[in-house]
Write a structure and sequence with these properties.
Helix content is 82%, strand content 0%. It has 146 residues and is mainly alpha-helical. The protein has one domain. The longest helix is centred in the C-terminal third of the chain and has 37 residues. The radius of gyration is 25 Å and the shape is elongated.
């Protein structure tokens, strides 16, 4: 009886250790999660600016008859910024559909592929952010007359 209890305790300890080790996310899962959070954080930083971007576009359009070619270029840049955001969001949601991006449900191959995609997405979303911020800065200067 005593050996049965010792065996049971030993088995429980081994099971507990192996289960707790397998519950830890792998390095690739952590990398995926970190990249995903970074991409979304950049998007979430820029998305609230879209209302202001649209307002700047409307203001420049109202002045369209009296604006210079430089101002027309700024208006085009604002339009491009808006289009870039909309296309990026559509593309990202197709690659990483809401509710279907759990890295723990992916095969190692899918996880590796998605990490590469997220690295590319991080570059794209940062370029989009720069484009939006640059366009808005130029538009504000043009509107204020500086």
């Amino acid at each position: 009886m005593r050996s049965f209890i010792l065996f049971s305790l030993l088995w429980a300890a081994v099971f507990s250790v192996t289960t707790s080790c397998s519950d830890k996310p792998s390095e690739e899962v952590r990398k995926y999660q970190e990249l995903y959070r970074e991409v979304i954080a950049v998007h979430d930083e820029v998305m609230p600016k879209m209302g202001e971007l649209n307002a700047l576009s409307r203001t420049l359009k109202q002045e369209q008859d009296s604006i210079s070619a430089t101002h027309t270029g700024i208006l085009d840049s604002l339009k491009l910024s808006h289009t870039t955001m909309m296309e990026w969001m559509k593309d990202f949601s197709e690659k990483f559909p809401y509710g279907k991006s759990d890295p723990l449900q992916k095969t190692p191959e899918e996880l590796h592929r998605d990490i590469e995609l997220l690295q590319a997405e991080l570059g794209e979303v940062n370029r989009m952010k720069d484009l939006i911020e640059e366009s808005m800065t130029k538009a504000k200067k043009a509107i204020s007359g500086k």
